[in-house]
Design a protein that fits this description.
By secondary structure, this protein is of the alpha/beta class. Helices cover 45% and strands 14% of the residues. A six-stranded mixed β-sheet has the order 1-2-6-3-4-5, sandwiched between helices. The longest helix is centred in the first third of the chain and has 16 residues, at 13-28. It is globular, with a radius of gyration of 18 Å.
Length: 201
């Protein structure tokens, strides 16, 4: 699986499962083995082809991943991937979802607390029936169940949270943005990348 780009050199276990299922589905539909192999080896995940699904950006001093993960299962999948990532600090920009049970939001915080060294709590544009403070409190509760001393910063607007993370990024850190509005987050990160590459002033 290491030569299948969607698996990120075999580090993304959940995508290995997805690839295996897709391969079997194609095989039983009588696609040629050669065509299946070519598709698996040439489909490269990217903001253009798979927006909001493990979109990677490598900056001079740090790396960034944007993903739409918004539940505990999604966070746990990201956690398995991050366990294989070598980084000085792993920073998560996360948010709770208002139309979930209290225990679900707490569980999300717990999952984040286990996989990130530092956490920035932001808010979705649609709070789905809760106040922003109620979501923040539940998320914080879950994080602190894992580590009472975990570094938590609350910045409610996603764009401002991303700005803060980038401006305070330490060398060799890895920043995960679990985005609410993926196109906006992608454009913001692309803008940072273009400036670093000298394409924007």
């Amino acid at each position: 699986m290491t030569n299948v780009p969607l698996t990120f050199s075999g580090m993304a276990e959940f995508n290995i499962a997805n690839v295996l299922a897709a391969t079997l589905a194609a095989y039983v539909q009588d696609f040629k083995t050669e065509d299946i192999r070519q598709a698996l080896q040439t489909f490269v995940p990217s903001p253009a082809l798979t927006p909001g699904r493990m979109n990677m950006f490598h900056f001079r001093d740090y790396s960034v991943m944007i993903d739409y993960a918004h539940n505990t299962h999604g966070f746990m999948a990201i956690g398995k991937f991050l366990a294989s990532v070598n980084a000085s600090v792993k920073v998560g920009i996360i948010a709770g979802v208002g139309d979930r049970r209290d225990e679900d939001i707490v569980s999300l915080g717990e999952a984040a607390g286990k996989i990130f060294d530092e956490i920035i709590i932001r808010q979705d544009k649609n709070l789905r029936g809760r106040t922003d403070q109620a979501i923040i409190d539940l998320m914080t509760q879950g994080i602190q169940k894992v580590d009472p001393m975990k570094k938590i910063t609350v910045i409610q607007k996603e764009g401002e949270a991303i700005d803060f993370a980038f401006k305070n990024a330490v060398k060799d850190s890895f920043i995960v943005i679990t985005s609410d509005v993926v196109p906006d987050a992608l454009e913001q990160v692309k803008s940072y990348k273009a400036k670093e590459d000298g394409l924007l002033v």
